[in-house]
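Predict both folds.
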Amino acid sequence: MATRDHYSRKPPTSATTLSTSRLILALLCLASLFICFSLFKSDNVQSPVLNRSAMSKNINYKKCNYTDGRWIYDLTVRSPPRYDHTCKEIYKGWNCLGSNKSNALDIVKWRWKPDGCDLPQFDPLKFLQDFRDTNIGFVGDSLNRNMFVSLFCTLKRVSSEVKKWRPVGADRGFTFIRYNLTMAYHRTNLLARYGRWTASNNAGVLESLGYKEGYRVDVDIPEGTWAEAPNFHDILIFNTGHWWWAPSKFDPIKSPMLFFEKGIPVMPPAPPHVGLDMVLSHMISFVGKKARPGAILIFRTQSPRHFEGGDWDQGGSCSRLQPLAPQEVQEFFSLKNNGTNMEARLVNQHLYKALKGSVFHILDITRMSEYRADAHPSAAGGKKHDDCMHWCLPGLTDTWNDLFMSHLNDFKQVFEGQHGYYDSGNKEMSGILLGLTSG
């Protein structure tokens, strides 16, 4: 009977079979989720370990190359879009709005359009929030101060609680109190320590070669204005270049650059371009050893000049009211032409060689800037000569900071892609990431 009952049961219906399959599938999904959650949780409690090859690939082959593109005149841009001439940190000679330069309002209407993508505009509030409790240092000549002032005025527009404060050696500095973000500018012309040199009565090796005076440049000693900066700042932006090809400052006959290494004159005496290579090598090594754990180290490429009709001390001027055309750019800056403004590309050759394989990330502003012959103070700079080297503020260096922030966002996004989160306070994270984006 029991056997008969067993065999006399109705076979399972298709609905019953489907319900059973769904139950099994649901259980499998739950089990998978539990395993994934456990792995994710354990990954978060351990020290972050980055997939270096994957991250390097992501950065090197990112969708947008911001350095190649063109300038577009954008009528929708309000003038000025970020800050105006009332920002007190703007050096008088760069305040083209305040000095009524004829095209001052038009300068900021030109927008950089990279090939195949857009360069996001700087978001000052997001920057302050993302880099809360961060120290940012600009180390270099007056062109880095140009960029520093642009960033400061942009941030001050959205956060006015600012206290003047500068770390050791800095020329100027400020802290945005609400966000505990400090930024400072450390002035240095050559990166290395230098000063006047005169021949002594001891008849040393330089005296025996006939040198009577010049400038002693210690290629292996950083200038005191920034020597402590790597110990303090979490983000450092360096530049050098304009003073290395400046015969009006370092006359090769009357007051040449005389290079010393380990306190001894370099023999035979080296020309400036060799001295630059030596300084870059030593300073890159110095920063790598002295920088805070995880510091983001950036080296900005050379800012171009736009003198026409001679150099600055030869009556040169820059009266253009629109950016250069591509063919004009080539004529201005081609090394083959050996022209007045070839300095930028010449310096960059040395920078790229020295930075290759280093811990520095390169911020390439040269190409986009070569077009902007219209964006200098020119005769409105208030000097005896036209200023065709620095930039009007507001102006081009605002776009440099767009590029600067985009690079920092790349660091942040790639890290989030690996870990699902980013902590700007975790210096180890940014340090690991930086090593993958070096020159």
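Second protein follows, with its predicted structure tokens after the sequence.
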Amino acid sequence: MATRWGICSAGKISHDFTVALNTLQAEEHQVVAVAARKLEDAQEFAKKHSIPQAYGSYEELARDPNIDVVYVGNIHAFHLKTCLLFLNAKKHVLCEKPLAMNTKEVKEILDSAKRNQVFLMEAVWSRFFPAYAEIRNRLACEEIGKVKMVRSEFGIAVLHNPRLVQKELGGGALLSIGMYCLQLVCMVYNGERPESIQATGVCLETGVDETVIVSLKYSEKKMAVCTFSSSMQLPNEAIIVGTKGTIQIPVRMWCPTSLVVNGKETQYPLPEPSLPLNFPNSTGMRYEAEEVRKCLLAGLKESAVMSHSDSLLLVELQDEIRRQLGVVYSQDC
């Protein structure tokens, strides 16, 4: 029986996720409804993606008995309220990253998922790419020895986008871009909490971070450096350095289609989209959707690849970085 998806929000990322779902087998994944704040937006989205039901409110989607799991694709400043709506309606939830604005909000979402006994996962799609799975496999067998350094960078010029600039929309490089660098470090070091974090950077006049460098020190002299920016294009590479070799993500470290292990490159091509995409390599969102279905069929309430504790560690690191940078949102007060 197919996993029946409801799409919450008819924006750009929801479009790409729906296109990614369409690269999977229809007998396993079906989009049965979409909801937007305006009915006409939902109807336009439904027509474009051949979705049978369109709703002009999120509440109607929450009440739909034909939905197994909801993909939450609205702006992260509103994730708390949206996630609680669906979780309290006993819907399973895949919520776009970042899961919420701060640790307090994330804990509230996680508590609700446990209380309602439903599946919840933060959609850190990177972790489900075949290249990321291969990284985990190579690290597990210590092919590059003991890891001593992780370096990751993600920079794109997106200051024209209000979502990255305006504080009330959860703007800033960290929550939208930098978290990709941090989640890679957390994955490589297997969820270990760093002994120390040092963050330095520059902020926009709106009070959100623009360009940041973060140094993390771990036990046994392990280190990590993350560089991210919303104002400039960076090479967007990552490297994991061990005592016996290296693993490189040569381009687009957040959605890679190739991996270089000790000088040998392997390609991981993505399926072609049925409609034009808004963001690079978005058909790779199919892998997180496959993980959701796999977990639901196994009766799991969270994924081992992106667990609740992973989401909690990630937001705690983000909160500390923001504290050092002096970035404060209304949700923090």
